[in-house]
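Retro notes (design track)

What went well: tokenization of the new backbones is finally stable.
What didn't: we kept losing track of which sequence belonged to which structure.
Fix going forward: every design gets posted as structure first, then sequence, in one message. First example under the new rule, 462 residues:
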């Protein structure tokens, strides 16, 4: 999905049409007697979930339910713990507005003013550890068995939200008659601080609390989605960038087996996750940054979450880079702990946990352009050949001249700036996508599709 698509998962009207229709609808509403409007409001969709009834809204023939709890609040003594089910409620609960915005650890990078707002409107819901919510869109509450698509948002396990207009599932549900679910879960240090070596059995799953949130969201889908006209036996999980990494994580979780049946990985192939040793060092570094001892984990649970998030950068800097930089990703992301995650998703081979699940893998042709845009020489296309060579040394495997010559031959008319975008897109994204597809295909248990854009080869494996 393009970061600039601010019109939902599938667009169907341009902004002018949208504004005209909105104005007409608003004008018509002003002419309708108040009593009639109240009668219409009383007919808004209501569904009974496992925790109680929820009331949504109906727009353009699609029923939408937002901010639906699939887990209880995760602060205080429940911080770092596996998710709990939400407390049941008695009356009908409103599910008409976004809710659940996980505390954020935004990337330490700036963006050009020309690209401000490219990703659409931001989530304005206050950040909170009461963030285990999901959103549902469906054409019918009729018992039909529609395919279900569960979306996990991007942000590298550190930031992001499912609460944004560009992730609104109305169009996808309307045009393809599927039930769309988008999910919020714990992120960064609050979802993935590995304290097992420090706190023992009580904190055994702390490094994967956020991954267990995703598991809980799929269990909610299994238990409730039929009431929204969906088929719990036909669930596709999909996500982009960090969301693709979340899909890869679920593919490697034994407890998630059977909760989904197909997977789509978009620009975020997680080959390796964080191993226990590095995750434990990061946790130790956080405690040192906060002035706490390993015997004070109860105090760690009670600190304001902003203090924990502020410790992420210094902790990562202290521990240093991963020993496997080619494929390792996500400091304070999922941890290969031997239990929740027995192994890496696709290293040294594809996980056998989901060997029979078909996977579609794709990417964006110039993925790194958005990250390099703040650099004036890239934006203005004035990078020199010598500067390009210096930039590719870290990914050249000890032979930058060969790499330079290869990309000069493949893209003879490209500027050094454009070739840098292509090289870093390939090293950071495309190589991982190809590796995922090849290792998955090597299992020979399920179809694998790989879509690669640009002049380079497009391939499929099955």
């Amino acid at each position: 999905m393009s970061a600039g698509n601010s019109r939902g998962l599938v667009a169907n009207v341009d902004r002018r049409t949208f504004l005209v229709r909105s104005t007409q609808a608003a004008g018509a509403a002003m002419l309708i007697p108040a009593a009639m409007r109240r009668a219409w409001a009383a007919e808004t969709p209501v569904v009974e979930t496992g925790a109680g009834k929820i009331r949504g809204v109906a727009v353009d023939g699609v029923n939408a339910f937002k901010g639906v709890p699939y887990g209880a609040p995760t602060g205080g003594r429940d911080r770092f713990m596996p998710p709990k089910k939400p407390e049941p409620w008695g009356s009908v609960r409103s599910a008409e507005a976004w809710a659940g915005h996980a505390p954020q650890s935004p990337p330490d990078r700036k963006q050009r003013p020309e690209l401000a707002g490219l990703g659409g409107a931001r989530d304005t819901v206050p950040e909170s550890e009461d963030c285990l919510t999901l959103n549902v869109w469906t054409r019918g509450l009729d018992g039909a068995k529609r395919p279900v698509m569960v979306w996990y948002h991007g942000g590298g396990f550190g930031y992001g939200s499912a609460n944004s207009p560009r992730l609104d599932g109305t169009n996808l549900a309307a045009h393809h008659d599927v039930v769309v679910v988008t999910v919020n879960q714990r992120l960064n240090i609050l979802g993935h601080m590995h304290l097992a070596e420090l706190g023992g059995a009580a904190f055994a799953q702390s490094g994967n609390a956020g991954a267990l949130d995703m598991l809980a969201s799929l269990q909610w889908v299994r238990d409730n989605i039929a009431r929204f006209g969906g088929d719990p036996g036909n669930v596709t999980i999909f996500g982009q960038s960090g969301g693709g990494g979340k899909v890869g994580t679920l593919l490697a979780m034994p407890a998630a087996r059977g909760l989904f049946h197909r997977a789509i990985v978009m620009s975020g192939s997680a080959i390796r996750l964080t191993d226990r040793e590095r995750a434990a060092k990061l946790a130790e570094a956080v405690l040192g940054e906060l002035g706490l001892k390993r015997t004070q984990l109860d105090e760690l649970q009670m600190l304001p979450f902003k203090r924990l998030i502020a410790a992420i950068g210094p902790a990562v800097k202290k521990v240093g880079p991963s020993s496997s930089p080619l494929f390792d990703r996500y400091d304070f992301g999922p941890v290969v702990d031997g239990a929740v995650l027995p192994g890496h998703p696709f290293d040294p081979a594809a996980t056998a946990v989901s060997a029979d699940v078909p996977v579609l893998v794709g990417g964006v042709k110039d993925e790194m352009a958005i990250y390099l845009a703040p650099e004036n020489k890239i934006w203005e296309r004035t990078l020199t050949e010598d500067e390009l060579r210096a930039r590719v040394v870290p990914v050249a495997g000890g032979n930058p001249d060969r790499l330079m010559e290869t990309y000069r031959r493949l893209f003879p008319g490209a500027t050094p700036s454009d070739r840098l975008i292509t090289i870093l897109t390939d090293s950071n994204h495309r190589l991982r996508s190809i590796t995922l597809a090849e290792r998955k295909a090597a299992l020979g248990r399920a179809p694998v599709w790989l879509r690669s854009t640009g002049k380079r080869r497009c391939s499929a494996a099955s």
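Added context from the reviewer: Residues 1-42, 454-462 have pLDDT under 50 and may be disordered.
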